[in-house]
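Hypothesis: this fold can be encoded by more than one sequence.
Test: take the structure tokens below, design a sequence, compare later.
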């Protein structure tokens, strides 16, 4: 074309969580029985949505209003319900006008980065969740700037790393927190959150806290929402949604809560831009917003979420017991959400390792697929071809660490343990560990 129409950040848009599906589907066509451990969809994995939640959604759908547009910022009853929740949980004051609904948090994340000034950067955790890291990098047309989560210290953030990168990079305007974290399942300790808030305060930054899995904590570290430690002076955006907690990923219903907007005129103008952009889209999907107060406000909801979290804890313990016995593998036990990330020590994975595959067609296919890929992706592809288990390489999360992420979503604990043991056996065979 006479004019280059490709966005400067096009090469930054990667999402290995779904990218691995192309190979998995081809292997399935060749006769491999795939065990999907790549994506966090509880419903697709077989988790039952309680009938009482379905009844609420069905009843809500009978209201003609559920078929119409909602106000641009969101249904008033849903926003007022969220405000009342914050007061009840933490005594935090939030204006309903500072809540903005999106078509899922993916939509919210895209807008938050798209409408930043091109030169303004948001530093995020590493390993990085690719929806955030890709969107931020694409916005800037440059690789995502990250701070380290230490896999040898429960995946906790390296505060010195955050401070140094903020201090020496004046383009950093904000700090991203994913709490509870994806892909590690780590929960930020309250004191760590306070330190990050202090850094933001010192350098005049805003904070973004993605709290998608807020109610799914089950470890020793209690999940602390950012709004409990933010104070009254540091601008912040908190992200929440229905996708994982109900679970209702197909609702595409997420929202942002804007705190301390008026403490900084530049941040206030940026927040207004997000509203203006949503106005161009008209609104977000109405039905889940209307159903939200009835679902989350139901007396059965807290116990429903607690039981789900307890199930994930049991499976995390199962996985930990298996992976911790493998030499040169580091597998900190998660404390929330439904993901488990495993790291190989340096030098464990190379470019010539493989697993035995009896079918020559499958062996030839995967041999072509592993050419030129990262060492952990090579392992993941051979794992899938040899055992059918589909996980995600850690290199797909914008990190130099080699490893993989799997889910804790399999409802059948016996089947889950079998999957973990198949992975462990494959690791031993692949790396030569007996």
């Amino acid at each position: 074309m006479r004019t280059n129409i490709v966005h400067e950040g096009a090469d930054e848009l990667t999402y290995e969580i779904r990218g691995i599906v192309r190979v998995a589907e081809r292997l399935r066509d060749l006769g491999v029985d795939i065990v999907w451990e790549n994506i966090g969809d509880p419903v697709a994995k077989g988790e039952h949505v309680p009938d009482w939640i379905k009844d609420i959604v069905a009843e809500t759908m009978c209201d003609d209003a559920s078929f119409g547009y909602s106000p641009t910022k969101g249904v008033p009853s849903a926003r007022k319900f969220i405000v009342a929740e914050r007061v009840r949980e933490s005594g935090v004051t939030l204006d309903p006008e500072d809540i903005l609904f999106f078509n899922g948090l993916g939509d919210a994340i895209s807008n938050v980065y798209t409408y930043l000034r091109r030169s303004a950067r948001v530093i995020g955790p590493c390993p990085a969740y690719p929806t955030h890291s890709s969107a931020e990098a694409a916005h800037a047309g440059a690789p995502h700037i990250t701070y380290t989560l230490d896999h040898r210290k429960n995946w906790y953030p390296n505060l010195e790393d955050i401070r140094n990168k903020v201090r020496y990079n004046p383009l950093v305007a904000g700090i991203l927190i994913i709490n509870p974290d994806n892909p590690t399942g780590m929960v930020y300790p309250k004191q760590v959150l306070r330190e990050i808030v202090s850094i933001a305060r010192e350098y005049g930054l805003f904070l973004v806290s993605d709290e998608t899995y807020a109610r799914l904590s089950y470890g020793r570290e209690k999940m602390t929402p950012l709004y409990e430690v933010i104070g009254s002076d540091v601008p912040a955006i908190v992200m929440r949604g229905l996708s994982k907690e109900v679970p209702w990923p197909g609702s595409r219903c997420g929202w942002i809560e804007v705190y301390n907007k008026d403490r900084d005129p530049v941040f206030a103008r940026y927040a207004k831009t997000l509203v203006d952009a949503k106005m161009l889209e008209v609104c977000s999907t109405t039905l889940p917003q209307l159903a939200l107060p009835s679902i989350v406000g139901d007396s059965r909801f807290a116990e429903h979420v607690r039981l789900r979290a307890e199930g994930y804890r049991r499976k995390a313990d199962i996985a930990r017991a298996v992976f911790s016995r493998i030499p040169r593998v580091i597998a900190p036990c998660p404390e929330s959400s439904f993901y488990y990330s495993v790291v190989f020590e340096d030098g464990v994975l190379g470019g010539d390792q493989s697993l035995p595959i009896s079918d020559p067609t499958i062996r030839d296919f995967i041999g072509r697929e592993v050419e030129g890929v990262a060492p952990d992706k090579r392992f993941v592809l051979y794992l899938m071809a040899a055992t059918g288990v589909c996980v995600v390489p850690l290199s797909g999360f914008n990190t130099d660490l080699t490893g993989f992420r799997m889910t804790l979503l399999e409802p059948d604990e016996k089947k889950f343990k079998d999957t973990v043991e198949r992975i462990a056996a494959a690791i031993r065979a692949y790396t030569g560990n007996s």
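The two ends are 57 Å apart (CA to CA). The longest strand covers residues 172-178.
Hypothesis status: open.
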